Amino acid sequence: MGKYLDILKRAEETGAYDINDINDKRPPFSRLGRFGRTLSALESRCPEHVPVERWQQAVADGRTFLARWGDQAHALGWTARDLFGLHQPPARPHPSYSRLSRYDETGLIWLLCGREVVALTEATAAIQNPTGAITIYRRHNKPALGPVGDSLDAADQAKASSGIASQAGAPYD
Questions:
Q1: What does the alpha-carbon distance between residue 136 and residue 120 come to, in Å, rounded to a whole number?
Q2: Domain ranges, ordered by start, for the chain
Q3: N or C, where is the chain less crowded by C-beta within 10 Å?
């Protein structure tokens, strides 16, 4: 059986799949559009370094999402990686490693956790939380360590543009 990310890559590039990559005994997911084959591959087994409960929830969330939003996601240019992507694990991951720990490389479906998408654009998905609040998932420019621009380089640039002098290396009075 092929690796999960290899399946996603082939689905993205060709729209096709290798029959050895998925359990072919299941009914086709043509009603779920272009992403149905990717969902079928995900259903066939839990990706390495993903908790089984999260995998099962992602499969359920993937079915729900594709039934409602699959055609629109495709029309808006969303890819299989945008929806189902996961971080490429390191060669020798630490025992506590989780592929879901890298938000910047995690697809929308993995982050739904039973919540519903209520709006979809070319760049974002609006997710309804149980409290009624809306969470915006950004397809591009997903920060790995905080909000976009939240870095030391950005802070230094902000200081420089505001005229604040840096105190680093300044002699003491």
A1: 10
A2: 4-89+97-144
A3: C
